[in-house]
Automatic annotation (TrEMBL):
UniProt membrane topology term: Multi-pass membrane protein
Organism name: Streptacidiphilus alkalitolerans
Domain ABC transmembrane type-1: 113-330
Segments passing through the bilayer: 50-72, 84-104, 116-136, 148-171, 207-228, 249-272, 309-331
Subcellular location, record wording: Cell membrane
Span list, region Disordered: 1-46
Protein name from the UniProt record: Carbohydrate ABC transporter permease
PROSITE patterns linked: ABC_TM1
Length: 341
């Protein structure tokens, strides 16, 4: 039984009218300040500041002068008849690609290329493997021994290139060398007092390889150790609880984390080892019988020993192009690896 209490409008409220085309239009959103024609426009991106380019301009200018100008001059000389006559007369006639054709038809091209690529690959592999083992050893050592190893690596790395090569040459000297004396005193390998390590191509490359790797390992080891310190220990603990062995933990955890760093040090090792010159020239001068001649040694001997600066420049340009192609490949791998992280 309904009673007149005045609450009926609240108990049975009339439904609110739904907005239709005949109802009062709702207020439209305010147009953006950039929209004057009523059409929506995408928000503007903030303009790129010229400050970063201004800050990089001095460094770019210095690189252009220090690296760009010599490269341009190198290409120009490779296209000229630049020999002993040009040094006295000052005239350098253009001969186009004649120097490149002479280098292409030279019988030493293929052996030198194979020798250079093989030696560079052996150096890079040896440096990365020994550097990785050294970094893993440093991670496992205590603070005191780790500091001693770090100081030893820095000391070896700080030795000047030419000075280290001269010391290494004295170590392997046939008559008074320390290495021959130690091997002879060990009485295991026989008498090595008069053994000349640089008289054969393979042993000469072995001595140079040992020297270059000894000089390159400190940078690689310290860089990889810095990367190892950024890997959380929880990953290794969880893998160990799952029953993973040392090799499995290294393959599944360590290598993926260090892949960008490995690619970076790999690129730098390729660049450095491809251009090894001082060690080979001081110790062997490309001998015996051109057995240790690489592209850098061949370019030097062509230019200064053979007085054919144009052909020497052409060989150097070929070396730059080969190194550039290898570097571009590794840089693309490095960028792709960084995008996957």
């Amino acid at each position: 039984m309904a009673t007149d209490t005045g609450l009926e409008p609240e108990l049975n409220p009339e439904p609110a009218p739904t907005p239709t085309s005949t109802s009062m239009p709702t207020s439209a959103p305010a147009p953006t300040p950039a929209s004057t024609s009523g059409r929506p426009q995408a928000p503007r991106r903030p303009g790129r500041s010229a400050l970063p380019y201004a800050l990089l301009a001095p460094a770019g200018l210095i690189l252009a002068l220090v690296i760009g100008y010599p490269l341009v001059r190198l290409v120009i000389i490779s296209l000229q008849d630049y020999g002993l006559r040009a040094l006295f007369t000052g005239t350098t006639p253009w001969i186009g690609l004649a120097n490149y054709r002479a280098v292409w038809n030279d019988d030493q091209l293929v052996p030198v290329l194979v020798r250079t690529v093989g030696f560079c690959a052996a150096l890079v592999v040896g440096t990365l493997v020994i550097g990785m083992l050294t970094a893993l050893m440093m991670r496992a050592l205590g603070p005191g021994l780790r500091t001693a190893v770090t100081l030893s690596l820095i000391a070896a790395w700080a030795v000047p290139n030419v000075a280290a090569t001269l010391v290494w040459e004295w170590l392997f000297q046939p008559t008074y060398g320390v290495v021959n004396w130690l091997l002879t005193e060990a009485r295991v390998f026989g008498d090595f007092q008069q053994h000349n390590w640089l008289s054969q191509s393979l042993s000469a490359f072995g001595v140079v390889w040992t020297l270059v790797v000894w000089q390159s390992v400190p940078f690689v080891a310290l860089t990889l150790y810095a990367g190892l310190t950024q890997i959380p220990d929880e990953y290794y603990e969880a893998a160990e609880l799952d029953g993973a062995g040392y090799w499995s933990r290294f393959r599944v955890i360590t290598v993926p984390f260090l892949r960008p760093i490995l690619l970076l040090v790999g690129i730098m090792s390729v660049i450095w080892d491809f251009n090894v010159f001082n060690q080979i020239w001081i110790m062997t001068k490309g001998g015996p019988v051109n057995g240790t001649t690489t592209l850098g040694i061949w370019s030097f001997t062509k230019a200064f020993a053979g007085q054919s600066y144009g052909q020497g420049a052409a060989i150097a340009v070929v070396s730059v192009l080969l190194l550039l192609s290898l570097t571009v490949y590794y840089v693309r791998r490095l960028v792709r690896s960084g995008e996957e992280l």
